[in-house]
Amino acid sequence: MRVFEIIIYQLNVLFFDRIRAQKKNQDYSIKSATKMVMLLLHNFAEIMFWYLSMMICILKLEGDFSQQSTVWDYIRSNILNVATFNSNEIEKIVNKTNSNIANLIFFENITGLFMTLLCLARFVNLLPTVKSKDEM
Prior knowledge:
By secondary structure, the protein is mainly alpha-helical.
C-alpha cells in the first residue's frame, strides 16, 4: 500500500498541483527543491525495500525459503530483477499459484521507480546552482 501511495502522491505533484494552482490564480511553487530531491531519493530506496520485503514474505509463506541460501542471496536476486526489468527469475522462484501476485508486485515496483525517476528529472533542474571559485 505504501508503494501505491507513493505513486499516487507523485502523480499528484507532477501533474495536478500546478493545474490546481492555475485554477486558483496562484503561482505554483515548492518550498525547497533540495528537500524534494532528497525525499524522492528516499522514496526510491523505500520502494526497493518494500519490494524486497514483499518478495521474501511470499517465499516464506510458500515454504520455498531455502535454509541453504542466505537473506543476502534473496536481496541480490531481487535487486537483479529490478535492475534488469526482468521478472523471469521471480517466476522460477515462486510457484504458479502466487506467480500473478509476484508479477503484480513487480509491476507496482517498476511503476513506482519510474514515477520517482520522472519526478527526479522534473525537480533536479530546480536545484540551486553551485558557485565555482575556479573560472574558466
